[in-house]
Amino acid sequence: EVQLLESGGGLVQPGGSLRLSCAASGFTFSSYAMGWVRQAPGKGLEWVSVISSSGDNTYYADSVKGRFTISRDNSKNTLFLQMNSLRAEDTAVYYCAKRWSSSASCYDYWGQGTLVTVSS
Amino acid sequence: QSVLTQPPSASGTPGQRVTISCSGSSSNIGSNTVSWYQQLPGTAPKLLIYSDNQRPSGVPDRFSGSKSGTSASLAISGLQSEDEADYHCAAWDDTLRGVLFGGGTKLTVL
Prior knowledge:
By secondary structure, chain A is mainly β. Helices cover 0% and strands 51% of the residues of chain A. Chain A is built from no helices and 11 strands. In chain A, the strands form 2 sheets. In chain A, strands 2, 4, 5, 6, 9, 10 and 11 form a 7-stranded mixed sheet that branches. In chain A, a hairpin with a 7-residue loop joins strand 9 (92-99) and strand 10 (107-110). Chain A is globular and about 40 Å long. The relative contact order of chain A is 0.31. By secondary structure, chain B is an all-beta fold. Helices cover 0% and strands 45% of the residues of chain B. Chain B starts with 8 loop residues before the first strand and ends with a strand. The chains are: A mainly beta, B mainly beta. The interface between A and B is medium-sized, with 26 and 29 residues.
């Protein structure tokens, strides 16, 4: 059974940093691209970033480019999102998701999400 | 980041067929496949449709997807109370080099 378990969320002040982790199990982690998608309270989904299976290629939404860094440790089946220079508008539930291999917009498994709150 | 355009709400009665639209442009829906997600209240999104019209195993055939040009649609036939949820479309955008999501459509079963 595929499982994705996010951790690392919490309350942080504007300008602060936070590192999210996503522990994966139930599939060959190193064979799949992985992504982060967020959802602000009461709002729709917003794609944040994706990393290729090897970690060689990364893409970011314009809203987080230069502030967030996605990475992965295939030896530990773990995905990361380093978030710096956090802003109030980054407040959201952050989901990690496994990308289906055949479609760039297709994420077939999602974690339960971790809440990040940016506030003073 | 711009979004794909969905109606904010839709509704239907049990047994009815409802459709939800998703409008984009040539750089996203017009040149890449569309995915649809169902999000029940308080839960993570669930993949409903991929590659415009394909259903993952376990998704009932009451759910179907279609695409024409720069627009896509999700149809739900034989509407059931448990279909009450938010529905999101998504597509890769070649210009932005990222995934775009629609704003989401809240489906109410009357």
